[in-house]
Design brief:
With 122 residues, the protein is of the alpha+beta class. It contains three helices and four strands; from the N terminus they run αααββββ.
């Protein structure tokens, strides 16, 4: 990843005009590689905002049919219905999630972080 970043900086530097290059280098001043890299980054790599994130906390439980859900509140097993009572806030998870959680096991506290990603940067 770092090599790709450096390649982009070199490419950007090569596209600079002679005037830009002359302005970039300060005559008579010794600049370290890190100083040059920071200046190039500030010129050609605008800072990107932190990705948007959402954290959802709750309880993960599996019903007798093998479906698994993240519940907002700790669910109580309802034996006659062979599942957990429906509530307003719950999220169905992929059935293969958390194989250690079974119908027989107790619900487990969980936190799920959802991060938005750019289409061009998966």
């Amino acid at each position: 990843m770092r090599n790709n970043h450096n390649e982009k900086l070199v490419e950007a530097f090569q596209k600079m005009s002679d005037e830009q290059k002359a302005e970039f280098y300060k005559p008579g001043s010794a600049q370290s590689y890190e100083e040059i890299q920071k200046r190039l980054e500030s010129m050609f790599c605008p800072s990107t905002p932190a990705p948007e994130k959402k954290v959802v906390e709750g309880w993960v439980a599996r019903d007798k049919d093998g479906m698994i859900f993240l519940h907002k509140i700790r669910p109580q097993r309802v034996l006659f219905a062979e599942g957990f009572p429906p509530e307003e806030d719950f999220y169905e998870l992929p059935k293969d999630s958390f194989p250690s959680i079974t119908w027989e096991s107790e619900p487990r506290k969980a936190r799920i972080e959802i991060t938005l990603v750019d289409d061009d940067n998966p």
